[in-house]
Write a structure and sequence with these properties.
Elements: E1 3-7, H1 20-26, E2 31-34, H2 42-51, E3 55-60, H3 80-97, E4 101-103, H4 114-131, E5 137-140, H5 156-166, E6 171-176, H6 177-183, H7 187-194, E7 198-203, H8 219-228, E8 234-237
Parallel strand pairs: 1-2, 1-8, 2-3, 3-4, 4-5, 5-6, 6-7, 7-8
Helix pairs in contact: 2-3, 3-4
Length: 260
């Protein structure tokens, strides 16, 4: 049975961020993820997490100036020093939460630019090697160009090939089903093919990015497929609730309380 992690950036927005840990636990989640914790002290994030008996499934490494439109800098040739500093910034949050995987964002760059490709390869390898002694996986996630125009990593095939070519044990694929359906389609076959390199999965309805209970994909089949494929990681609920978060959790009731 899949182990679901509530995405606290997108869910439970009825309350302030630090109160969402309690809200998620009360709703039956045993794990959480979020985009960024860096606006809050690492110790406080860890306290809210552990105080509610939750496991941290994932968070993103610092992305640069998010409010100015930056979406990471791993593929930006002139930002390697920022990349190195971002790993150090994240480390205190890694230690406070006990998270076992972090997402490295690529940034806005052209994949046809050889310098950007080289920068991304260098950054990905460096991040994986940096976190390996801490027992962490680094995941990279293709993001569809409709949601983030110009994002460097917008192709699952490119991501798969890079992971296989680098051959770094703790470098994995973040397989967001929502993004995959928009970019490529044929989600089930891609899950079957890429399962050996998948380190994290995320879900949302397509095309609206709401609760995974309708629209293009039939998620109960996909959840069963994850079990059939032996996936033992987390499934992050990275969706925008249509209304109050708890009013849209009928899909989740069969899975509530599943322990990590």
């Amino acid at each position: 049975m899949p182990r679901f992690a509530a995405n606290l950036t997108m869910m439970f927005n009825e309350v302030p961020f630090l109160d969402r840990f309690e809200a998620a636990a009360k709703a039956g989640f045993t794990a959480v993820e979020f985009l960024f914790p860096y606006d809050h002290p690492a110790e406080e994030v860890g306290k809210r997490l552990k105080g509610n008996g939750l496991t941290q499934a994932l968070f993103n490494l610092p992305p640069g100036d998010w409010n100015a439109g930056e979406k990471g800098f791993a593929a930006l040739p002139d930002r390697f020093a920022d990349l190195q500093q971002s790993l150090k910034t994240a480390l205190s949050y890694v230690q406070a939460t006990g998270v076992k995987r972090v997402h490295l964002m690529a940034g806005i760059a052209e994949r046809s630019d050889a310098r950007a490709v080289a920068a991304f390869r260098k950054s990905v390898a460096h991040a994986a090697e940096f976190f390996a002694p801490h027992g962490l996986d680094v995941v990279i996630e293709p993001i569809n160009p409709r949601n983030v125009p110009g994002y460097f990593l917008n192709d699952f095939i490119f991501a798969r090939d890079l992971i296989n070519e680098l051959g770094i044990a703790n470098l994995k694929l973040q397989f967001d089903i929502y993004h995959c359906q928009i970019i490529h389609g044929d989600v089930t076959m891609r899950l079957r093919e890429m399962m050996p390199i998948i380190g994290h999965i995320q879900i949302a309805s397509i095309p609206s990015r709401n609760e995974p209970d309708g629209e293009e994909l039939y998620y109960p089949f996909l959840f069963g497929e994850l079990d059939r494929l032996g996936y033992g990681g987390f499934v992050g609920c990275e969706y925008n609730p249509r209304g109050k978060t708890t009013d849209g959790l009928a899909w989740f009731k069969p899975y509530a309380g599943v322990k990590p």
